[in-house]
Amino acid sequence: MNIFITGAANGLGRELALHYLESGCRVYGVSIEDYSEEVFAKYAGKTFFFSKLSIGDFAAVAKSVEDCINKFGSIDVLINNAGLKFHRSPDSIKIDDYANVLNTNLLAQINIINLVIPSMIKNKSGTIINIASRAAVEFSYVDGIAYGPSKAGFYSYSQLLAKYLESRKVSVHVLCPPTFSTDDYKILHPELNHNKFLSSKVVIKAIDDLVYAKSFITNKVIYFYSIKSWVRTVLSEIVKYVKLLPQVKYRWK
Questions:
Q1: How far apart are CA 208 and CA 81, in angstroms?
Q2: 147 catalytic per annotation
Q3: Class of the domain covering 2-247
């Protein structure tokens, strides 16, 4: 299996790359940062290839996708993992900040998909997995005033694309995880209680279930909740709509 992973140099992307390499897959990774030659020494130049680039550099991304197809013959799975975390209050954020976040978290992702799907459609096979965020569907953190809409757009785009590609036997799925802990995150923030966070291993298991699905499935939206947080979310939604009812003046049958 040939897998193209963005943001493959660190965090979840690196864990995914190593996970699939250890499973016998071939992986082509891209990232704005260099990968660890020591970590990937066993696979580099054999089953692992890498291009250092910003996914916002559309020309560089096009070259890497072409290089991947030339080396592997096809891209069976695309995992759009790279993204820009950006948090700033609504009264301090600049319009250029919005443009940068939207370009990285939405337009750059769409560009990669546009480059990959022609070969998938031709082969009548392929899986696209998009990593969005819980911020795409929950709107409680106002400092995510740019990040949230960028992920909400990606969330919506993924579901629409899935409908279009279903008849062409290309599956599209979107994951909406909350903040989760990776090996890198634990090293960067040893002061945090990482037991409170979702583990990256759970995210990888969810991706595995989609990559290795025994039959064709598409348009799966994966949320990650503990029982406690799920109950709290359901109750808060019920309360919200109960409060809204007296304000509804316009109804249709």
A1: 14
A2: yes
A3: alpha beta
